Structure formats: structure tokens, C-alpha cells
């Protein structure tokens, strides 16, 4: 992260916050550049321009452009303008409900749907003889039960997120 003539304490704060978002995002499979962009915008008390984001993170224009597109699409960032003629300023959307709802609808639902098919295939292809196959069939059946219970929570989570 580039400091330039900026206050070192501010830069250190930004670095820590960007690292926090990058680590959290890695658990969800979100690209580091996307997480870093969100982190740097989140760390700024004022909206940032495309160029400011690029400068502070020292990443390519293409990465900034792609990351901003993703973050706007999922509702994590919003584009704002000031009273001046400047446009293209970005600030975090502090309503995390929309971001979480999008994550549930896109990633979790997709993973859930894929997992159901995979578990059904696994149940049909259990290897082994005698009691070994039965043990494995019971384990896969247990996974299918857990999977079904998790799937039942998705509509509840979506409804809950729309209430607030």
C-alpha cells in the first residue's frame, strides 16, 4: 500500500483494515483484489475515486475496474457524487444485509444445489463389501440428512434478511 505524503497512522490503519477484509474474504473464495478494494474504501472516512483506490492499493486499472464492478453488483459499494462535479466516488454500503443476502442466494444456493447432486451420486457409488459398504452408506446418508437440514435454513435466512 502506497503512503505517499499521507499520515503514516492513517496508512497503517488502512493496511490493517484491508488485511482484515482480505483474510475474511479468503474464507469465502473472494479474490484478494476485490477484498482489498472493499477494505480501502471502508477504511476511508470520505468517498474515494477510482484513481485514489488504484493509488492506495497499487493495483492495476483492470483489477480496480473489475473489483468495483463486482462490489457494486453485490451491493457492497455504492457510487456517490459530491456537491462538486466529481463523479465516480465510492463508499461502502453499510447495509450488510444486502451483501449477505446476495451471498446466500448466489454462492450458498449454488453450492447447495451442486452438493445435493454430488451426494446422490456418492450414495449410488459406495464401494466395499460386507459391512464396509453399509458403514459408508450410513455415513453418506448422514451427510444427506445434514445437507437437507442446511438447505431448510436457506429460505429462513433469506426471509430473515428481508425483515430488517
TrEMBL record:
The keyword Transcription regulation applies. Signal peptide: none annotated. SUPFAM superfamilies: Winged helix' DNA-binding domain. One of its GO terms (molecular function) is DNA binding. It comes from the Bacteria. Keywords: DNA-binding, Transcription, Transcription regulation. The keyword Calcium does not apply. This is HTH-type transcriptional regulator.
Amino acid at each position: 500500500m502506497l503512503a505517499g505524503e499521507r499520515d503514516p497512522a492513517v496508512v497503517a490503519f488502512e493496511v490493517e483494515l484491508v488485511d482484515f477484509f482480505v483474510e475474511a474474504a479468503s474464507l469465502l473464495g473472494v479474490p484478494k483484489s476485490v477484498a482489498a478494494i472493499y477494505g480501502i474504501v471502508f477504511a476511508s472516512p470520505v468517498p474515494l475515486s477510482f484513481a485514489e483506490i488504484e493509488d492506495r492499493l497499487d493495483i492495476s486499472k483492470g483489477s480496480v475496474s473489475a473489483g468495483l464492478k463486482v462490489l457494486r453488483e453485490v451491493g457492497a459499494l455504492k457510487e456517490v457524487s459530491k456537491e462538486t462535479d466529481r463523479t465516480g466516488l465510492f463508499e461502502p454500503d453499510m447495509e450488510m444485509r444486502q451483501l449477505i443476502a446476495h451471498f446466500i442466494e448466489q454462492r450458498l444456493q449454488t453450492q447447495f444445489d451442486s452438493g445435493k447432486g454430488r451426494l446422490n451420486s456418492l450414495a449410488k457409488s459406495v464401494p466395499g463389501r460386507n459391512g464396509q459398504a453399509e458403514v459408508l452408506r450410513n455415513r453418506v446418508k448422514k451427510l444427506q440428512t445434514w445437507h437437507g437440514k442446511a438447505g431448510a435454513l436457506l429460505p429462513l435466512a433469506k426471509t430473515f434478511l428481508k425483515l430488517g
